[in-house]
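Hi U.,

Before I forget, here's the chain from the pilot set. I'm dumping it here mostly so it's searchable later in email.
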Amino acid sequence: MNEIIVMIHGMWSGSWVWDNYKIFFEDKGYLCVTPTLRYHESATNEVPDHRLGKVSLLDYVNDLEKLIRKFDSPPILMGHSLGGLLAQILASRGLAKAVILLSPSSPRGIMSLRPSVVKSFWSTLTKWNFWKKPMHQTFNEASYSMLALLPPQDRQKIFNKMVHESGRVGFEIGFWYLDLKQATKVDESKITCPVLIMVGAKDKITPVSVTRNIADKYKSVATYKEFEGHAHWIIGESGWETVAMDALAWLDKALNIEQVPVMPYIEQRNYKRISFQTPVIFSDTGLGIHSQGKALNYSLSGVQFMAETALKQGSDIDLKLVDIAPGFKGPQPNAGYKAEVIWCRRKKDAIYDIGARFYHLDRS
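Structure:
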């Protein structure tokens, strides 16, 4: 069974923030689950669920724990912003095989209220009883705190998708020293799985100075990385692929998955990818030895398949698919094609995940 990554979104967001990462990691053989937190379905201009304002961080955690306990074994947890704090709490409950934190919110004991953070939440903090009400950033606050490095049209597009957040959750994170229930408390001694912490150097809502303290809290198991030229929307800013590639390399190493070096990932897909399983027959043109594998998906320009044979990245192969999805105009069944190996990663039980790109068709 493929390793499962549970991707947990942050404040004012939904599962849509993981669109790029889900495609990226599933292309590499991982199964990605992207839950939406409780009451996070309404749009920016809609009236939020009246119950949202008083929802606790622990309500989110308990919802996610119920989901995770349905799996046969602990998954990989990946969290952005608030999702990063939720991942920390879940990991302290023994519910993670590995943890990747992207611009994470801080747990109890770490002071996060820097001037830039206060500015990011100003419209909420200046409202009485905000800790009992749904809250939402203004467009200017979102542009300043999270979306500053995105083109103006992209900022508006993302802001239009943003939803309301629980005022109580904001209180529990920012004013943890007043929270009698200690919702954001994390016992670091109970996190024994490997942890990767990644943050943009220009982040204003989860600043580097705060994130370094989070890394220090988990220093016995943590790897910490800062990225110049990135801010809080590290999962969607220009160059997000580099961050994802670093996370993938760390994850493969943490899980003892052997990975053949690959070229930097660039999302340039021009054609629809068809999920369709069929036998494939291939041979390294330099060796002429035929082998068999199983295709997982394909497009006009390439194919992803599993096999027991390792192939060198950049090598040429002869390849044919035994069958294709009905009605799809692309590679023909049992026709021979020359292709280039783009990646080859060792999975479990000496099985390799391979991506190949056809030479004579348009590339995506």
